[in-house]
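User: Could you go from structure to sequence for me? I need the amino acid at each position, not a summary. Structure tokens:
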């Protein structure tokens, strides 16, 4: 290949070149692997030297411009007429896991409520229930930064945004576009650190869901990255009122398109299991939330007792398979557990009512086992009690 970069003017030179490539090809097949990889790397360097503006994926380490900030974004739009936030235990669990695993610089709550308004005052002084209190607390280590935003009522194409979920879709994309960082829905639970993905050099990262689309409930982007800019623009044109026309459909379209130029590093698409291993189907919600016939972790519980840890060694599943029931999922390759709730589709999961502290601490479902380590930390710090309700 590198022979083509040198000016060849005579027939003789062409013949020589042809002979040389045959010789090189033979060398390639007969030399040991070490030597061939050195031979291949030489023309690569020659070619990229002509295009200094687009570094190859194996080029220099990413510059700070390419690092996705360690900032988390949540969105909660209070419906007209609502007096209070309606946060539940599961929302606090989601927020706390993001804070615990990522230690973000800032956690934003983008909302339509005024920072000095009575809704936040009531949440903060505990009169709106325990979970609202914890989420807005200034004493738990994280400091939720409330960002009051105008909530759009119409898309750029003039169509009215018919429901809160769609208004939230527009708010979340603009927030991440303007500030950069990680967006997660409230039913997404961080299972491990995202730093390697934020620092991968890609300016946007998102993951696929059941059926192959990119899910818009979890995404990472640098400020004003190309993907988020195209999505923010495209969603206004695409909006029809369809459930995911402006969200999943647009991020899938622009995200996939951007992958074709890997040197630009505008988009990294993760496999489904990385961010959204389950789904909204009855089968998947049963798999995730269904209570199994195994002894409860709270079987011998007495008030205030220490709860066990379940650290899993690397080889444990091969060395002692008898310790792991067939139904128990290995969460090793999941960064974010998007726990699609069965409530919304009015499907009844056997043995499951709500995500309560007791449901998680009993460890009788795949969901409970995934989030137990965070719930145990909360229990150890006295932030939750086993008999706390899921709401209030
Ligand atoms: C909590 O805040 C609300 C709104 O400001 C106020 O009306 C209420 O009296 C406060 N309650 C307590 C116990 O401080
Ligand atoms: C649950 O497991 C126990 C012991 O393994 C067994 O005796 C019992 O029948 C099981 N219950 C159900 C509902 O499967
Ligand atoms: C409960 O106590 C019994 C008897 O001491 C013990 O065998 C069992 O492992 C304990 N179970 C749990 C979940 O702590």
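Assistant: Here is the amino acid at each position, in order:
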């Amino acid at each position: 290949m590198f022979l083509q970069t040198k000016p060849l003017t005579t027939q003789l030179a062409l013949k020589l070149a042809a002979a040389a490539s045959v010789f090189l090809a033979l060398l390639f097949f007969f030399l040991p692997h070490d030597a061939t990889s050195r031979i291949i790397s030489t023309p690569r360097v020659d070619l990229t030297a002509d295009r200094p503006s687009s570094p190859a994926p194996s080029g220099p380490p990413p510059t700070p411009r390419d690092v996705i900030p360690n900032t988390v974004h949540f969105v909660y739009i209070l419906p007209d007429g609502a007096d209070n936030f309606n946060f539940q235990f599961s929302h606090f669990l989601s927020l706390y896991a993001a804070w615990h695993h990522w230690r973000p610089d800032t956690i934003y709550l983008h909302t339509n409520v005024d920072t000095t308004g009575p809704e936040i005052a009531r949440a903060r002084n505990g009169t709106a229930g325990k979970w609202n209190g914890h989420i807005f607390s200034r004493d738990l280590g994280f400091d939720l930064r409330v960002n009051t935003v105008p909530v759009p009522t119409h898309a750029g194409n003039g169509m009215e945004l018919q429901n809160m979920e769609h208004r939230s879709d527009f708010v979340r994309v603009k927030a991440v576009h303007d500030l950069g960082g990680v967006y997660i829905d409230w039913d997404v639970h961080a299972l491990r650190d995202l730093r390697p993905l934020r620092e991968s050099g890609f300016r946007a990262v998102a993951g696929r869901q059941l059926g192959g689309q990119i899910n818009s409930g979890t995404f990472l982007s640098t400020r004003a990255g190309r993907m988020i800019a195209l999505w923010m623009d495209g969603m206004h044109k695409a909006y029809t009122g369809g459930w995911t026309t402006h969200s999943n459909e647009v991020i899938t379209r622009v995200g996939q398109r951007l992958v074709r130029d890997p040197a630009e590093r505008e988009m990294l698409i993760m496999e489904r299991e990385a961010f959204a291993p389950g789904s909204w189907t009855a089968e998947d919600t049963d798999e995730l939330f269904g209570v199994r016939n195994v002894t409860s972790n709270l079987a011998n519980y007495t008030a205030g007792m220490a709860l066990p840890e379940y650290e899993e060694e690397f080889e444990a599943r091969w060395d002692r398979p008898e310790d792991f029931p067939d139904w128990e999922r290995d969460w090793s390759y999941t960064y974010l557990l998007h726990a699609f709730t069965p409530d919304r589709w009015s499907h009844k999961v056997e043995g499951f009512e709500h995500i309560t502290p007791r449901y998680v601490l009993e460890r009788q479902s795949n969901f409970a086992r995934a989030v137990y380590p965070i719930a145990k930390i909360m229990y150890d710090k006295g932030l939750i009690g086993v008999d706390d309700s899921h709401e209030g």
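One structural detail worth keeping in mind: Strands lie at 71-76, 106-111, 144-148, 181-184, 188-190, 204-208, 214-221, 268-270, 336-338.
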